[in-house]
Amino acid sequence: MAFDIDMIKEVYGRVAERVDAAREIVGRPLTLSEKILYSHLWDGTPTQAFTRGKDYVDFAPDRVACQDATAQMALLQFMHAGKAQVAVPTTVHCDHLIQAKVGAEADLKRANKTSNEVFDFLGSVSNKYGIGFWKPGAGIIHQVVLENYAFPGGMMIGTDSHTVNAGGLGMVAIGVGGADAVDVMAGMPWELKFPKLIGVKLTGNLSGWTAPKDVILKVAGILTAKGGTGAIIEYFGEGATSMSCTGKGTICNMGAEVGATTSTFGYDESMDRYLRATKRADVADAANQVKEYLTADPEVYQSPEDYFDEVIEINLSELEPHLNGPFTPDLATPISKMSEAAKENDWPLNVQVGLIGSCTNSSYEDISRAASLAKQVSEKNLKTKSDFTITPGSEQVRFTIERDGFIDTFNNIGATVFANACGPCIGMWDRYGDNAANGPRNTIVHSFNRNFAKRADGNPNTLAFVGSPELVTAIAISGRLDFNPLTDTLINEDGEEVRLEEPRGYELPPEGFDVEDAGYQSPAKDGSNVTVSVSQDSDRLQLLEPFEPWDGNNIMGAKLLIKAYGKCTTDHISMAGPWLKYRGHLDNIANNTLIGAINIFNKKTNFVKNQLTGEYGGVPDVQREYKAKNIPTIVVGDHNYGEGSSREHAAMQPRHLGVKAVIVKSFARIHETNLKKQGMLGLTFANEADYDKIQENDTFNFIDLEDFAPDKPLTLEVVHEDGTKENIKLNHTYNDAQIAWYKAGSALNLIKAQNA
């Protein structure tokens, strides 16, 4: 029986009434995304139609999921919410704090020792507040959610941007910051601007070397890293229904890289098969009773241009395998063009490492197809030229692929199997030890999502390319970035010319999934007697102090902390990797604030001017001096500021250090929300060219902040070093409720006051 089956049946019990009412109100057929959104309104049965991209709407998600790095801060905040138990089913997954170094067994043992304090804290908090706890080694949050909790037509939020993976099982699953999760766990409504809708029609069928990963790599090339912002991507067509459930999950997962709110697919037979294979026949049976409500109305997919804001069509029969990168996940290159592109850009052709797995491509199907290629190494007397690693997504997958001989196949070609954890995908990869910052220029290929500079191994000179597990495996065998397995041959150990045969695999294990210990720990039925303790001497955990409320006055005399040049992701604002160990200690992790951002005035990282001394120093050090002198500061950024991970630390750290406002050309959705939740001003230039007016020695006055109101721009008075002044118009998207957060000092401050 599935977890939370009663909750799932309750959702299905009301879906017909709510969707029928929404269809009547909207006055037309509905997409799947709209059905899920309208059936999860906080106020219940729909009574009004909402305008996409404009109206803020309160929703009631069915569940919450947290990974260990973000769960620390989320649960530290929840402890202040005044609740005895979480209001909706919630889980915590220990997957981020396990560093990949030697291999699964040794790495897990080391993590349990070095992060024991954090794991004990998360386990005890989960036990106290009725939260399901998945222990270290159980698997990556998104794979575990897909195997155990995701269900068609549901809505969930998670404190990781790749929560969207659950769209592979027909959910609207959205990545959020921890403060949003706290709202839902505390029984409060969750607010979201009603998304726009992008439809992707998939025709034809995947075959040969092309995989589901290539669909999203192609989409990323079309939409770019911000083209999906504020939208849900809904996939449909014969190509969608012919694809496996886990393949759909792969596509949805990487949709975060185009800025999409989430991605999803309509319920079909592949989802039914996957639910039954993962021992959730009860969910499949319940879904089949309302299946017409778990996909779009027929008219929508027949005439998608009439119902979506944008429509993309991809013929899977013509789709080529792709490699995306380096340094951005939306630079898409078909494999047939890679040789030419590599020469034009002087990309190193020798591939040092190929990595497959992670939450994105760790399904049984992915691993079995990669294993079919690995098996050919010995059969064709080849030798793997690149280092090769495998990261299973869950203990259930790992146990099953070991049972079926795939791990032996990988071991036979010299591969390393890492722990069931995020590992290299999030920078938890001890590839260079302490010398990562000075690592050599080199090329790696992987089946993860992100490939920002320093993302995987901390080396700014590593060029990382994203591809399907099949293509990554083939390239690792060949050792070359420009190897095209569709046309190229390899020379084996006998000097013979051989060709890799097309990968073969299984959608689901022929003998079924199996596992001895999945790694799940149920919470106490009554957690009132459970004690959660945090040592005052800990450098890993720190109880939170509420942020100060706004004093109601204009902000005057502010200084510029940094004007960021170009791409500034949450990795630049609050790095992962070795810093993950401080995710539960706000003051300690604040020492990495914006150290990856490039200062436009000197093109250096972590080197900004201290206006008090005239000298240059590290960003956190300079900001701490401003804070000590009670001098307000601002941060200025470019387009899509804060793209990437959902980590709210990227908002909490500047807030903790005393930054008052972040002013940019445009925001990534989650980061803008995180800033609002933490009582920060997140503002955009009304005229993007005004970004160029900001100078290093300027002083800033927010001269009309006292009149802060929805739909009313703010005015920034810029005082230049020579005494001249000019006013800049700043836009914002704050509504009344969000302005109340700002006035209270944070959304949590307001929740706590309301609960009291």
Automatic annotation (TrEMBL):
It comes from Gangjinia marincola. It is an enzyme of class 4 (lyase). Signal peptide: none annotated. Its cofactor is [4Fe-4S] cluster. Pathway: Carbohydrate metabolism; tricarboxylic acid cycle; isocitrate from oxaloacetate: step 2/2. Coiled coil: none annotated. NCBIfam families: aconitase_mito, PRK07229.1. This is Aconitate hydratase A. PROSITE patterns: ACONITASE_1, ACONITASE_2.
